[in-house]
Write a sequence for this structure.
């Protein structure tokens, strides 16, 4: 029918055509715009080539560009202090404790999706613990070292710099778990505890990670492998949304290869996803064995050095931020924190997004951060 | 379940065969444990033992790898069947292809996520990881023996030193903190 002109149609057909078909000029326009198979193949090839070039330069894209100074630098971490963007309205500084998985710049991925920039623009004084890559010599570094030594040193440095007695401890993912442990042990230095998707009740983690953790022989891993290497983490990542994120995202890149904004967002996230340092062996052993397999943290039986981490002793204001679509930490695994602490001022915020979407997306900027900022500012004077 | 039982039986059978072969050759090659052949006899039996242990570990790894692939293969078959049920029957237009892609991604995602969150996969994955570590452990033990011959520090010895250093650091940290606390108390008192 496509090649037939109006004159070639029978009168009754013509009438029918006029009723259902667009006008002749529009039809011709459509026919003219329809690309041939050869043109489509050429276009697909061009997109493929462009996508290949883009992926080759992925590592060069800028991330974590909010101005900051290094306040303290040690072998295990750097304590970053971000420059004020507006006049300070909150008296209590915020110390962000990042996770030990991948890099901290996901909290400052790009200006319009930066968790840190948003807090700065709301008048907070923001510090961040940027963990360095553990080496083979850090095999026996444990949560005791991270919590009672590294985080404690950073807390002391921030308190001294701001000449205050307490701060807001703000942790993301595994950093949320460590912040909770720290607060249970050193509450006198904490004004507020604000955690994002912390792992608290390992038995209620219904994600792939929680499932695989159940049968891992982590004692043997520590003995044979030492630190958990990046390759082992990549092997784990491929089991998380393997087709939607493993294959479909590259097909989406091909389709949107000429959209600069899409490509920029894609590359920044891709860079972060595959920027994976190893995890100190003993810390990983405790993470899997004590928190997931034995579920010691929520039972108040976890020990750091000779001290028991008793979450029921926590009395400071608590904000627990979780994502309904989180495929790395189940919301059911994070939520029990609010039940086990003794704080009277506690709030659970749930958002309809994923683990990374919670902190590095436009959704987070428009829906999560204004509410978090409001909660924090009311308790930071 | 039947498949798992068969795999375990095959694994047990292979291990028995390896043990029998090892015992047979050990008795044939036995050397006197006194006199000039003593050292040679000791080293030979130690290395032979390592290689047999390595063989056993590799058989175990192969068997667990087979169980792992059989789960993946069954999931792949299920995903293909689900795709065929959900995707368009005819691929005539661009939209048909697009719908096929969507249906395939959904079917594969759901099927494999179900697999990865199942307790059966968790057990098989745990066994596979464990057997990979067993192979590495035996290889490390062989390498360590060679290092000892060269009078070089072995990995276990370096490990012990690392453990001591971390313990020392913690002790120093605690001592420093208690001294600081005492100084603070003294300052307040004066």
């Amino acid at each position: 029918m496509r090649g037939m002109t109006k004159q070639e149609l029978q009168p009754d057909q013509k009438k029918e055509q006029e009723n259902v078909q667009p006008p002749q000029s529009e039809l011709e326009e459509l026919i003219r715009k329809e690309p041939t198979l050869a043109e489509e193949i050429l276009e697909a090839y061009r997109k493929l080539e462009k996508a290949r070039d883009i992926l080759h330069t992925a590592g060069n894209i800028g991330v974590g560009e909010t101005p900051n100074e290094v306040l303290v630098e040690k072998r295990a971490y750097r304590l970053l202090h971000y420059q004020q963007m507006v006049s300070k309205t909150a008296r209590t500084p915020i110390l962000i404790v990042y996770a030990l998985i991948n890099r901290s710049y996901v909290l400052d991925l790009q200006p319009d999706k930066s968790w840190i920039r948003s807090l700065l623009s709301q008048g907070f004084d923001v510090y961040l613990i940027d963990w360095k890559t553990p080496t083979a010599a850090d095999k026996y570094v444990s949560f005791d070292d991270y919590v009672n030594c590294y985080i404690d040193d950073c807390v002391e440095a921030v308190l001294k710099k701001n000449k205050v007695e307490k701060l807001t401890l703000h942790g993301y993912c595994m950093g949320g778990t460590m912040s909770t442990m720290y607060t249970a042990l050193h509450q006198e230095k904490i004004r507020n505890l604000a955690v994002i998707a912390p792992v608290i009740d390992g038995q209620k983690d219904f994600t792939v990670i929680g499932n695989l953790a159940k049968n891992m022989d982590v004692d043997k891993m520590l003995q044979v492998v030492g630190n958990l290497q990046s390759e082992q983490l990549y092997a784990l990542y491929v089991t998380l949304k393997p087709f939607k994120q493993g294959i479909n995202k590259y097909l989406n890149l091909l389709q949107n290869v000429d959209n600069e904004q899409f490509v920029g967002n894609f590359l920044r996230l891709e860079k972060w996803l595959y920027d994976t340092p190893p995890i100190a062996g003993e810390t990983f052993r405790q993470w899997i064995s004590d928190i997931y397999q034995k579920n010691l943290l929520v039972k108040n039986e976890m020990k750091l050095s000779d001290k028991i981490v008793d979450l029921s002793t926590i009395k400071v204001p608590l904000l627990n931020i979780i994502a309904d679509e989180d495929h790395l930490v189940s919301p059911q695994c994070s939520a029990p924190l609010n039940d086990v602490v003794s704080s009277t001022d506690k709030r659970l915020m749930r958002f309809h997004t994923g683990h990374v979407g919670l902190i590095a997306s436009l959704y987070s900027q428009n829906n999560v951060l204004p509410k978090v900022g409001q909660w924090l500012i009311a308790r930071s004077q | 379940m039947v498949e798992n039982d068969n795999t375990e039986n095959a694994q047990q059978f292979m291990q028995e065969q390896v043990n029998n072969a090892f015992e047979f050759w050990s008795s044939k090659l036995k050397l006197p444990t006194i006199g000039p052949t003593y050292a040679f006899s000791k080293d030979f039996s130690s290395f032979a033992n390592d290689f047999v242990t390595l063989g056993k570990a590799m058989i175990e790894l192969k068997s667990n790898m087979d169980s792992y692939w059989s789960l993946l293969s069954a999931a792949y078959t299920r995903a293909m069947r689900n795709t065929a049920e959900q995707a368009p029957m005819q691929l005539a237009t661009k939209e048909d292809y697009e719908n096929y892609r969507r249906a395939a991604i959904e079917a594969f995602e759901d099927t494999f996520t179900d697999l990865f969150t199942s307790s059966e996969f968790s057990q098989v994955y745990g066994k596979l990881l464990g057997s990979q570590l067993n192979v590495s452990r035996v290889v490390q033990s062989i390498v360590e023996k060679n290092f000892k011959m060269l009078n070089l520090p072995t990995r276990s010895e370096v490990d012990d030193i690392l453990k001591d250093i971390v313990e020392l650091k913690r002790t120093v940290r605690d001592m420093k903190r208690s001294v600081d606390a005492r100084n603070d108390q003294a300052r307040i008192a004066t």
The CA atoms of residues 183 and 189 of chain B lie 10 Å apart. The mean pLDDT of chain B is 86.
